[in-house]
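Quick note —
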Amino acid sequence: MQRKKLRAIHEIDTVDGVKMKVGSKQAQRGFSLVELVIVIVVIGLLAVAALPRFLDVTEEAKKSSIEGVAGGFATAVLSVRAQWEANGRTQDTNGFYVVAYDGTDMKLTAESESTEDLTIRSGYPFGLADSDGLGSALAIADTDCVDLMTELMQNPPQTATTTDFDATQHKYLATTVEDSNICTFYQMASANNTPTNLNGAHNFTYEPALGRVVVNLAD
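Predicted structure written out below.
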């Protein structure tokens, strides 16, 4: 008789089909298959709705980034010219304009090179002077563009020519069109880091003859 009472004390009726014991925690129910499917569907709908906005934010960030880099580059160009003016329009021994800017000798443009087809304004950097600090007539190669990005800015993004570009290291690609004397700096994040596919890449150009920097945002 005593054994039966003890058993009755430790057992209670089933609750929701689950037999419980006194003093034990209530059984926890997991999600049913239908509930899981509903949750997955809701998450999918939220992702579909949010993805375009996320992509827009990413694209706007790329545009803001290149605009910031181009603005810093343009400011540095003007600083070089201001330094040259402050130094009294310095020249090398051959009469070419040069200036020591932040410890680096820069070659500068000169109005004397102007022709009927091209107007050149004096004092804008287009490359590094040679080891003797000598300048030259206006002529730009891809490597000059890389040098300008590297030496003009305080914290320049890693930049390379098409030949040297490494997607794991470089953020910008510098190129010139033959005889144009214009540097084009491509933001490689907007080109999927592919040097052979630059049509949709944001870029900015630098034209030393006029000291002009222009940002070109892809559609």
